[in-house]
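Quick one, tokens below:
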């Protein structure tokens, strides 16, 4: 819903209220100490190959853009080089690399690297290790999966690695220590093992205890991520986050994920996003109206473009501060990396070559980044990072245009009446006004004046 009248967050002056002047920065956390240049982040990609193989682009691109990146579950447990003594991690290769890649490219204090944990990570002490040894300030608790109602899973093509993960306490199917299974694998009867995580069993007591443990360990900010569970579980997430002063609650709708899960489960279980996020708004408003503490909220599930980001922020305003995205940023980093490989091999596809033959020509943000970073630093950037950074800049420009059209020149001014429902059912579910009823009172006053 755009307008021609006034402006929020800037003087209502045609020379000042231009879309490049829209401020997309947000600050959240108990002390507003987490600053993002843009109102989105990546809310958790962990031990899958697609995350590991594209981490360089994801970490560097996110850090340069000044947005957050969450290291998802099972990274420590899946690391064959991790050193575990008495059931607790004391050293890692992969987690250390992931944190360092992000921190080395952070600029001016914007963004955050977040370490998430599921049951196995908690048992291994992964978050305590990240806080103590890697200087991580933000940690995230995870209730189950955003994409599925079972624990995380990956495929394992090596017998020794499957046995290592079994030894570390994971559920590995079939049992890689069973002599009959070993023989079957060696003769090629099957090619891959499956590693599964356990499902979380949530109680208020265990949640409160874990939050206290993390604070005592030195965590400065604590997040919670939950999935598309039934409404009572969403209510628990909102209440517990309020009661124990969580800094960010992310609510991820069904379906989602990187494609490793049972497909029917991902597509059919749980509450779909618009319904789920509408319930989230209702529960948050109920607590807010009672004067209760509310953390910043984030919504996730299938967000790709700036119009969807605007709608997500507006649907949950004023409680939703940011949007979570994973698949789209991964795609941007992968495309950037692929373009880099084709440049190295002198085999740039025709549909890319029309833009040029070098990083500076192909990536529209390259010249500005080169000027900011200097030639030496710019030349070190992987093209995966350029792909992600450029995608984020495109989202930012588009979001600024939409916000300027609504005369909202900072994220904090986005409101629920900046969007309208196109059907009666959408209006009923979301509480957003039906498009034919928007501004009824104002219209009456204008026409009767």
């Amino acid at each position: 819903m755009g307008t021609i009248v006034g402006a929020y967050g800037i003087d209502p002056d045609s020379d000042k209220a231009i879309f490049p002047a829209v401020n997309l920065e947000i600050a959240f956390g108990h002390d507003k100490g987490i600053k993002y240049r843009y109102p989105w982040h990546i809310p958790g990609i962990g031990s899958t190959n697609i995350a590991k193989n594209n981490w360089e682009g994801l970490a560097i691109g996110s850090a340069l853009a000044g947005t957050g990146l969450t290291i998802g579950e099972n990274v420590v447990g899946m690391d064959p080089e991790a050193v575990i003594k008495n059931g607790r991690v004391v050293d890692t290769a992969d987690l250390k690399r992931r944190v360092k890649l992000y921190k080395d490219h952070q600029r001016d204090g914007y963004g955050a690297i977040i370490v998430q944990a599921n049951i196995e990570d908690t048992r291994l002490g992964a978050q305590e290790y990240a806080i103590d040894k890697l200087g991580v300030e933000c940690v995230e608790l995870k209730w189950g999966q955003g994409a599925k109602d079972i624990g995380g899973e990956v495929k394992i093509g090596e017998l020794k690695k499957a046995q290592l993960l079994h030894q570390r306490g994971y559920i590995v199917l079939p049992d890689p220590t069973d002599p009959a299974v070993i023989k079957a694998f060696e003769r090629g009867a099957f090619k891959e093992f499956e590693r599964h995580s356990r499902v979380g069993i949530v109680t208020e007591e265990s949640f409160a205890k874990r939050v206290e443990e993390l604070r005592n360990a030195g965590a400065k900010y604590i997040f919670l991520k939950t999935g598309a569970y039934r409404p009572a579980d969403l209510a628990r997430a909102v209440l517990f986050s309020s009661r124990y002063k969580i800094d960010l609650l992310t609510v991820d709708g069904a379906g989602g994920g990187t494609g490793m899960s049972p497909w029917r489960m991902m597509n059919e279980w749980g509450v779909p996003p618009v319904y789920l996020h509408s319930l989230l708004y209702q529960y948050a408003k109920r607590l807010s109206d009672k004067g209760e503490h509310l953390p910043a909220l984030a919504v996730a599930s299938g967000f790709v473009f700036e119009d969807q980001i605007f709608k997500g922020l507006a649907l949950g305003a004023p409680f939703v501060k940011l949007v979570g995205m994973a698949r789209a940023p991964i795609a941007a980093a992968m495309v950037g990396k692929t373009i880099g490989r084709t440049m190295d091999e002198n085999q740039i596809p025709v549909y890319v070559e029309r833009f040029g033959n070098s990083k500076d020509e192909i990536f529209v943000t390259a010249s500005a980044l080169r000027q900011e970073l200097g030639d030496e630093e710019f030349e070190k950037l992987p093209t995966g990072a350029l792909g992600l950074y450029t995608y984020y800049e495109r989202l930012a420009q588009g979001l600024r245009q939409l916000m300027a059209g609504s005369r909202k020149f900072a994220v904090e001014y986005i409101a629920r009446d900046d969007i309208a429902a196109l059907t009666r059912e959408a209006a009923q579910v979301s509480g957003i006004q039906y498009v034919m009823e928007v501004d009824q009172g104002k219209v009456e006053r204008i026409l009767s004046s």
